[in-house]
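Quick entry between incubations.
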Amino acid sequence: MKIKTYSSILLALCLALVVSACSSNPSKTDNENKSENQKVTLKLWYWNGAISDASLQAAKEKFPNINLEAEKLPSGDDYLTKLRTTLAGGGSGPDIVAMDSWISSMLEYKNQFVNLYDQGAHDIESQYLDWKWKLGADQENQYLIGLPIDVAPVVLFYRTDLFKQAGVPSTPQEIHEQVKSWEDYFELLKKVKDKTGSQTGNIADIFRSIVGQSPENFFDKDGKYIGDQGDVKRAWDLSVKAFQDGLTFPFTSDTEKNAAINASKINSFNGASWSVGDLVSAAPDTTGKWGIAYPPGGVGNQGGSFLGALKHTKHPKEAYEVIKFLVSPDNLVQAYKEFGNYPSTPEIYSLPEMESKNEFFGGQNLNEVFSEAAKDVQIAPSNSQDIMVLNTIIEGLTKVDTMKKDANKAWEEAQTKVKRQLSR
Amino acid sequence: MNVEILSKKVFFHALLLVGVIISVFPFYWLVVMSTNETSAMFAFPPKLTFGSYFWNNYDNVMQNMNFYRAFLNTVFIAVVSTTLQLFFNSLTGFTFAKFKFPGSKILFYIMIGTMILPSQMLLVPQFIIMRNLGWLGSYVALIIPSIATAFGIFWIRQYALAIYDDLLEAARIDGCNKFGQYWHVALPVLRPALAFLAITTFVGVWEDYLWPLIVLTDSSKFTMVLALQQLKAAHTSDYSMVMTGTMLATIPLIVFFLIVSRQFIAGIMEGAVKS
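Done. Structure below.
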């Protein structure tokens, strides 16, 4: 009987709470309107690691008449899902929004974004890396939906001690000069493996790196599928060759990869600038034995974000000013120091603050390699289907390793699968 | 004979022990990781013993997320949501089971039909409804849409079918109206079914991720799973910290399960003895 009394009280309470929550809503918006008259409120969405907290604080101090509400949201696909649903449902999204390298898929909805060129973005264009800037603009370069934050050039991470032991080029200088192509790199890997028994990343890593540094990948700039030929086929063949020569390490997850790196079973891999932090925390037993060098085959880019403003904002001018401040070179240096996001403004690469010597890398100044690589990044035309194609082909490629599938058969199957998906 | 029984017992207990180890290990590992540094996670061979970094990780969690705020938010939503769901589901389920009205069968099958729709498909339409109602960003948008669920109603109806009509008849003769029959007769009988529903609903609300992610924008209103995601950075994550946060977030669920499961089992026993 007692339980029943309690439960009916609880039920009544719950109903009352919900009803009161319904009715309290309008009064709240009234309050917001009132405060808006005095101070402009700008909402900003970002994820942990996109913008430095110190920079956000600095922005609040610089713009005393702007009430900047920055919401740190879950990162990765979740963030994209939330943004997409909000755009599709026409919900009250933020005024300012951080975007990752998927910004090209947002260009389809450019009408939902403020054209930053209209706000005077042309004036600061020259400060940024040209290839990075263009990722946020439409094909005609008339409509700009995001200003660049960071870039993520992919370079070669390698074990200086193992390379030395094998008698192959082992300084960044030597590697840059002597290991120019993937064929050179495989040659080197063979020697290192014979001497030390260590390998490079898995078969998919190699494919991803080669595709990433090609001037064209899965679609040409008119949207025609070319992922069954050219650079993609070359990347596939090279990856298969590396696997068949026993140069790749067959890890299937990041945990396995980290364990292999820490156990000195991996002598080198291609990684983006942000993987420095991952490597340091994953492989404490190899401290001091790593180095980075200009990568074989050219430079790709993996990631790097942008800040844009949504069209429904009532204050596009103020939003632009805040964005401009947050992506200013000074704040980008701050983000590099805080979590290793490499800035997209080349003018600051030579500043003494950018020097990053790390004991983990035997005191090498990483900035020397990154700054050179960042300027040489190759960008291929992007397409909203890129990720699907990449995942399908990598799925097929992985089977060559894990299931010892015939490489030609796997290629045919992957291509059939991609084409079936594309025809839907 | 005795030896045979004993060896059988030993065998089954050994088998059960293996089962227990397999199911408990992930949680054990979670606790171990929350007391170690991240680097220990990737060490080879992996570290399987407790470390001394728990308070360190705890401090990191508290600095990087508003843990207790998120905790209270989630408790609030889970309690309100579960209570309302139990009430509306059992009321509807009981009605479907015991009262015949025109179209009741068709209504029931239509409702069952909605279970086929994947929740992802409802995301955008539901979002638009919430926007039009002006509920975006508030807890009402989390609670109201799931106030009655097809599964819950179906579950209760199946259970309520077993209630004797004579029992309800007797209550009616004693002066109970229809709501009284539900409140005084059906609810006590439905207790084990409600306990099960309470567990699944509570856990479901506690773990719900996609809908709160879409609806909530103010991080001070975030539920536990959303707030935990804030611990993860875009590239480099401090996994010990994430593990510590996850472990702390799991404890209330275990406590709740222990409390309610006793009800659940008590209910089963009660029924068994009476019949």
